[in-house]
Amino acid sequence: MKIMIVGSGGREHAIALKLSESDQVKQILCIPGNGGTASIPKCRTIGMNVGDFAGIARFASVQGISIVVVGPEEPLANGLADYLQSQKIPVFGPTKAGARIESSKIWAKELMVKAGVPTAQGKSFTKPEKAKEYIASQPAPLVIKADGLAAGKGVVVAPTQTEALLAVDDLTSQGFTTLVVEECLTGAEVSVFAVTDGQTFRTLLAAQDHKRIGEGDTGENTGGMGVYAPAPLVTPELMGRIEREIIAPTLNALKAKQINYCGVLYAGLMITPSGDPKVLEFNCRFGDPETQVLLPLLATPLEKILTACVEQKLEALPPIEWHPGCAVCVVAAAEGYPGKYRRGDEISGVDAAEAMGVTVFHAGTQSRQQQLLTSGGRVLGVTALGEDFAAAVDKVYGAIAQIEFEGMYYRRDIAHQVLPKPEPEPTPT
Questions:
Q1: Residue pLDDT, tens place only, 49-69
Q2: Please, how many CA atoms are within 13 Å of residue 4, restricted to the half-sphere of its CB?
Q3: pLDDT class for 153, splitting at 50, 70, 90?
Q4: What is the C-alpha radius of gyration for the chain, rounded to an integer number of angstroms?
Q5: 155-158 and 142-146: which strand pairing?
């Protein structure tokens, strides 16, 4: 079979690499791909714009593509899956209506409330002054969210009312016309992914990512600076609750709206101190960088899962199997990210890193005249597997130290929550 992947990030590199492992997959076409996908023998990178729906459909038809996998949220929110379906091309990814679960915080919130899905209390506003009046009446901390796609950076956790008011001004100045103000849930964040054919679903391993730019979870939100899986916090019992209380009712609510949701439903959850799961947000695609730890652990061939979903035969798929062990991914970012960042710097040391037994996923890279250059804010993701988290962390940090580019930055505390605590020093007698 031949599979097309739409997107250019680390997530798409991870999907392409996983699919390339299967004898059933003869060729993978990446639109537009990146420096990493270009290095996979089975892959062809195609310099086509992800917004060229007609061009993508024509190319998929001419090439005899079995499945188109849409990686990022923006083309889904703009209706790429709808267009491909109209041309009778199988696609893994929800329609524009289904993608609203990510593209509109308000629509998603209303869906959750109606379905009884546990989530934070809040209100939406189209006028900044009304949002500010509401903020003044609420105890801090508060969460301010932009209603629209914001590349994972449209959420501000404001410890004080003053910072919440400033967040309203900041998001409004970026062009967001509708804001959501919510209570701030406390606890531990986890990412849970369900693949679905619209009728049934299967959950994948839970992961925990690190969204803040700074160590100790400080500074601005990013698309994700590192991640680990499986998340020990999500026990089989808790995953059962998440499936019953969150995933199933959400998919049922989508079906009630006549939305046949085929693809990934990604639930960003807060596990409260009392152990209850609550939804922070939904996304309509695989996570980035979560995909870079989940797929290396996946034992079931990925194309079998994709095929079962697009053919609406997921119920007949045997249970999804996983390799033993743990995975940790650390993201190397460009100087200035998540704001205005450097680009065009030469990258070295990738081969030396991979020689240490890790996988280097390309996120913001491009190849030019035999040179690998930075082209995005999140440049590379280095993933290591280990029999436990300590082994994976040792390997990933040893490998990422081999990589160099001007202004390179990465967090040095990824997965710190799951590492063994050092033994206390004995008290002198």
A1: 999 999 999 999 999 999 999
A2: 27
A3: low
A4: 21
A5: antiparallel
- The whole-model pTM stands at 0.93
Residue 315 CA to its chain's centroid (Å) = 25
Give the integer Cα–Cα distance in Å for 414 and 404.
19
What is 122-183's CATH number? Answer: 3.30.1490.20
Q: What is the pLDDT of residues 183-211, one digit of tens each?
A: 999 999 999 999 999 999 999 999 999 99
Instruction: Write the DSSP string, 173-227.
Output: HTT---EEEEE---SEEEEEEEEE-SS-EEE---BEE--EEETTTEEEE-S-SEE
Amino acid at 193: F
Give CA separation, 257 vs 111, 211, 233, 279, 426, in Å: 10, 32, 33, 20, 63
Q: Where are the beta strands (DSSP E) in 66-121?
A: 67-70, 91-92
Q: Tokens representing 370?
A: 């035999």
What kind of fold does domain 188-316 have according to CATH?
A: D-amino Acid Aminotransferase; Chain A, domain 1 (3.30.470)
Bridge partners of 264, per DSSP, are 195
β-pairing, 67-70 vs 188-196, is unpaired
- In this structure, are strands 359-362 and 365-368 parallel, antiparallel, or unpaired? unpaired
Beta bridge partners of 327: 229, 385
In the structure encoding, which two tokens stand for residue 379, read together? 């440049």
Length of the chain: 429
Biggest distance spanned by C-alpha atoms of the chain: 80
Tell the CATH topology of 2-95: Rossmann fold (3.40.50)
The answer to whether domain 326-418 has CATH 3.40.50.1820 is: no
What are the counts of helices (DSSP H) followed by strands (DSSP E) for the chain?
A: 14, 22
Say if residue 152's pLDDT is above 80. no
Tokens of 87: 């041309």
Query: For residue 10, how far is the Cα from the chain centroid?
Result: 10
Domain boundaries, the chain: 2-95, 122-183, 188-316, 326-418
**Pick from 336, 383, 392: which is nearest to 13 by CA?**
383
